[in-house]
Amino acid sequence: MTRIDLLAVAAHRDDVELTCGGTLLKAVQQGHRTAVIDLTEGEMGTRGSAGLRGEEAERAAAVLGLSARETLGLPDAGIANTPETRELLARAIRRFQPRIVIAPALEGRHPDHRTTAQLVRDACFVAGLAKVAPDVPKHRPHKVVHALTYRQDFVKPTFVVDISDVFERKMEAIRCYDSQFSGVTQAGEVYPTGEPLYDVITHHAAYYGALIRARYGEPFFTTETMKVDDIVSLDVATF
After folding, report:
1. Does the reported pTM lie above 0.85?
2. Which domains does the chain possess?
3. Which of 38, 155, 177, 222 is the residue whose CA sits 20 to 30 A from 106?
4. What is the distance between the alpha carbons of residues 209 and 236, in angstroms, rounded to a whole number?
5. Which tens digit of pLDDT belongs to each residue from 91-109?
6. Containing H/E element for 72?
7. Cα 128 from chain centroid?
8. Going edge to edge, which strands form the sheet with 100-104?
């Protein structure tokens, strides 16, 4: 068992690199152990193959400094939130025992992304039920957060992580997926603007960074209201 601090769960290999790769990199930089669970092998992707995407994911994992990365083998373009898939993911969550879990946005263009968001929330809850998969000790994460990158039509971010000092490494991890992103203008939840995909990603990161007066950022949403202990220490100037 590899106990980690921050776990990102996504539908497809390359999703976390696009949406929260900078946050994972920053967490490692701060001394935290991180891991990724890809629910599918991405076998239904228009470009490349499941095998090639697996090789690319391994290279990206090394760039991100992950302690572990695994794939659960659910069907690409067919992820379902069922008692069986909740237990499968709950078992993985119990193995890693994360404090924080990153899930996709609750809304999304790809049905796998929307389903994964709720599946993650439900699996995190089920992971704390002793009578579900009783052969594995229960563990319920402290918090689930949703990566909002590219989802401005959904909800205003609860917070934004400053990824300015790790942004180039985030792009390095994204570029590991040459089969998916080389020469394209659109991918996943990234809507096309006519510019190369890497430029669109950079523009989005710069926009989110500007919200917190930083160069680059990644946005997140929580269903819980954020807590402040010291109001005098609040960051990001109003004027």
Report:
1. yes
2. 6-233 (3.40.50.10320)
3. 177
4. 11
5. 999 999 999 999 999 998 8
6. strand 68-74
7. 21
8. 68-74, 34-40, 6-10, 100-104, 143-147, 217-221, 159-162
